[in-house]
Specification:
alpha+beta, 17% helix
């Protein structure tokens, strides 16, 4: 995870996981669960705006609630499937 203070948003990020076959993740909610507390404390803000600046990136609204974080944004369908339970 690479992150920096943003100009138009509170912080920006890029997430790379080549060890599990993901060269770059488009928008990573799980990674933001670690970045939100850091940027909340660094910027002294509870409500934050974030942008993942990968090729298929996106904007996130973030809220730090102490032991919890709230993440919002627009989702896109990327997979449709069927699960069979035998």
């Amino acid at each position: 995870i690479v992150t920096a203070k943003g100009k138009e948003v509170d912080f920006v990020s890029r997430c790379f996981y080549p060890q599990v076959g993901v060269n770059e993740d488009p928008v990573t909610g799980s990674a933001h669960t670690t970045m939100i507390p850091y940027w909340s404390k660094t910027l002294n803000k509870v409500h934050l705006s974030a942008k993942q600046i990968s090729k298929r990136g996106g904007h996130l609204t973030c809220e730090y609630q102490g032991k919890r974080v709230v993440i919002g944004g627009e989702g896109k369908l990327y997979l449709v499937g069927t699960i069979e339970i035998a």
